[in-house]
Amino acid sequence: MLEILKSILFGIVEGITEWLPISSTGHMILLDQFVKLDVSRDFYSMFEVVIQLGAILAVVILYWSKIWPFHKKQTLTPNFNSQAKIWNYMDKDIFIMWVKIVIACIPAGVVGVLFNETFEKLFYKPIPVALALIVFGVAFIWVETVHKNKTPKINTINDLTYFTVIMIGFFQLIAAVFPGTSRSGATIVGALILGVSRTVAAEFTFFLAIPVMFGASFFKLYKFGFHFTGMETLILAIGMITAFITSIIVIKLLMNYIKKHDFKIFGWYRIVLGIIVILYFTLH
Question: Where are its TM segments located (predicted)?
Fold first, then answer.
């Protein structure tokens, strides 16, 4: 029962921090310092990544109409006056959006596959995470201050150019290298610098997470193998379900929040948390 409660806690933290620009990986690393799941290190290394599948399913469900390019179209049947719905319509704008998403994923995907283990050994530690939290916290405050009252140049996902998405992809690469940066935080900061509106930056970040998280999760599953004990299966399933439910709530709250507010509050949160982490692990 205790391990199940821990799994629920990890799922809640994942569901909250995956979509807020405060670094889910960083928070999971820090949580693991204080709340240890009674599992092998190999399983935990897989668990902290695969649990993200629960979070990404929330995006798939909430934004299905915006990410699925094939739609039913009303057509007259040859011999009847009634209309039938058939899958014969592909939304060109959504298809192009997916092309842009794939392009944006290339930098982080290539570097992540080649050097993932090296990055984990070097940077998946409390102090590097804390420094990344602080640096990008400052970046959020700086970007929002500089762009205050400026009218965004890009106000819909369709307006994103190929140059813009490849640059966002390189910002995502920073998060792939340094845990604590935050994948959503890095891509949102990059998008804001490039003149993208907050709403579009957040939505594109959500959509960008779909192939990234599915790819990272299946890569980890493949490396771990598909042999789980009954308890391991239960822990993973509960963590994913909890992350899914939490993500549904957090995504809705975040999108409502950024319609009227900027991202500075997340910048200050990151800075304060980073300082606390440095003090704690320096003094202990």
Answer: 43-64, 95-115, 127-147, 159-180, 200-222, 234-255, 267-283
Structure tokens at 177: 């290298």
Place 75 in a pLDDT band, splitting at 50, 70 and 90: low
Report the alpha-carbon distance of residue 279 to residue 125 in Å, rounded. 14
Domain assignment of residue 43, given as a range: 2-283
- Cβ atoms of 239 and 7 within 8 Å: the answer is yes
pTM for the model stands at: 0.85
**DSSP three-state, residue 152:** coil
**CB proximity list for 133: less than 8 A, separation 6 or greater:** 22, 23, 26, 180, 270, 271, 273, 274, 277
What is the pLDDT confidence band of residue 248, given thresholds at 50, 70 and 90?
Answer: very high
DSSP character string of the chain = -HHHHHHHHHHHHHHHHTTTTT-HHHHHHHHHHHS--SS-HHHHHHHHHHTHHHHHHHHHHHTHHHH--EEEEEEE-TT-SSEEEEEEEE-HHHHHHHHHHHHHHHHHHHHHHHHHHHHHHHH-SHHHHHHHHHHHHHHHHHHHHHTTTPPPSB-SGGG--HHHHHHHHHHHHHHHHSTTS-HHHHHHHHHHHTTB-HHHHHHHHHHHHHHHHHHHHHHHHHHH-S---HHHHHHHHHHHHHHHHHHHHHHHHHHHHTTT--SHHHHHHHHHHHHHHHHHHHH-
Number of domains, the chain: 1
